[in-house]
Amino acid sequence: MSANGTDAPRIQAPAVLLYSLSGLGKTVAALRALTPEKTVWISTERGALEPATGRLNPWRDAHGRVWMPREFLCLHAAAGKDDHGVYREVDAAVRDAVRLVAEGVVTNIVIDTLSSYARRLDHYVRGILNVGREYGHAADAIGAHLEPYLDRIFETCASVRRPSGIYGATIVALCHEKDPFQAAKDRRTGEVGKPVPGGPDLPGALAKKVRHHFDLVLRGDGRIAAGKLHRVFVHDSLDKQFPTKDRWGIVPDRAEGTTGLCPMDLGVIL
Q1: In Å, how far are 33, 183, 254, 270 from 24, measured between CA atoms?
Q2: In this predicted model, what pLDDT tens digit does every residue of 166-225 receive, in sequence order?
Q3: Which end of the chain has the lower number of beta carbons within 10 A, N or C?
Q4: Across residues 42-54, what is the average pLDDT?
Q5: d(CA 230, CA 193)
Q6: What is the DSSP-derived secondary structure letter of residue 14?
Q7: Helices 85-102 + 114-122 axis angle, to 10
């Protein structure tokens, strides 16, 4: 109930997925948008956060010191069948992040990147456990772990009410981009593979299904104008090759006759 006795609308913190080619500026966009002392960074890439600080980081105090988010490094690569560190490390980081949200210490969680974590899972499932075409679908096995990992963050944080009245943490997940491709012919059956759309660089059907977990999915891209590179977000709700999503309807949508482009400024969008 609100202060005047009426039912107040429940406002849930947004969940955002950004994907683009490596090096286009996803990490910088998230870093510039989120107050560092209120942000937990789950890093699955070596040095992903460090290069984005310094000159590019706007969060400086009066003495010129750069403020950094809390960072949990998750870089474990399993080397044996009994080595489940690739799961445990990220699970511990998620638990710590959720605890900090529940305690009111932080309000933002960044996952940088989902693609790198999926790559470590892929190595573990295919290369160490030898789960391939003969024994099942490795991509499904990876997705069966990644989706509950996202669900745990959303569901646990959703019950936490922040002082502002917003529920949960703002979630920003970053992904690399993969190109559309024609799947190879099946060696056992001879059937021609289906065309595979591009989008977030995640295994199997997870690249398509992961959008269901987010309110906003944007693709980062670059445009050349007057000899200068302009970094933009692209949104086209009808694009099957590079899917995007905007549950709020606040970002220009090419399918509605606009350019579908907006500056790569996550802070303005949020």
Answers
A1: 16, 27, 21, 20
A2: 888 899 999 999 988 777 776 777 777 677 778 999 887 788 888 888 999 999 999 888
A3: N
A4: 72
A5: 37
A6: P
A7: 150
Torsion of CA 226, 228, 229, 232, to 10 degrees: -50
Three-state DSSP class for 236? Answer: coil
CA distance 235 to 253: 5
Q: What's the chain's length in residues?
A: 270
129-163 in b/e form (b: 16+ CB < 10 A) is: eebeeeeebbbebbbebbeebbeebbebbeebebe
Is it true that the peptide bond before 113 is cis, omega within 30 degrees of 0?
Answer: yes
- Give the SS3 label for residue 231: strand
- The runs of H, that is alpha helices, within the chain are 26-33, 85-102, 114-122, 138-158, 206-209, 266-269
CB 59 within 8 A of CB 141: no
Residue of 2, 18, 16, 1 lying closest to 200 (CA atoms) = 18
β-pairing verdict for 15-20 and 170-178: parallel
Which pLDDT does position 3 carry in this prediction? 45
Q: How far apart are the first and last CA of the chain?
A: 26
Question: Tokens 């009410």 label which residue?
Answer: 161
- In this structure, the number of other CB atoms found within 10 A of the CB of residue 253 comes to 17
Question: What is the C-alpha separation between 258 and 251, in angstroms, rounded?
Answer: 10
